[in-house]
Write a structure and sequence with these properties.
single chain, 150 residues, alpha/beta, Rossmann fold, 7-stranded mixed sheet
Amino acid sequence: MATYISHSPEETHALGETWGREARPGLVIALSGDLGAGKTQLTKGIARGLGMNDRVHSPTFALVNEYPQGRLPLFHVDLYRLETPDQILAAGLEEYFHPAGVSVIEWAERWFNEISDFQAQAAKGTHLRRVSIETINENERRITYEDFGD
């Protein structure tokens, strides 16, 4: 497990950009953190690292925003309005857990809650990065992440 301390939204964006440049097809980045912690800011950086110039918006009401223009397609999923894995399945979102490009899933704890959930998905061939963003103060964030799968 690795920890990164971001001192500004720009640093959070830069970390995401690094991850986007390194991303391979099939990567699922599972984000957890309170409202305003920086999940969408990190996603904007990932999009930039994938070579996208589009404006990235949180898909809270749409559930999914797709950005096909970069080196790999980006699928930005927001589970905030869904509370259980059954609701996620009923919404038809399971395909984003095995993407042709990169999926970034906000509020991922609503689908993946335990380490065993990540291990089970990794056993199915999914490369997962579990990310927790914690607000330290107005500008600083503790970003902890761990990879599962190859």
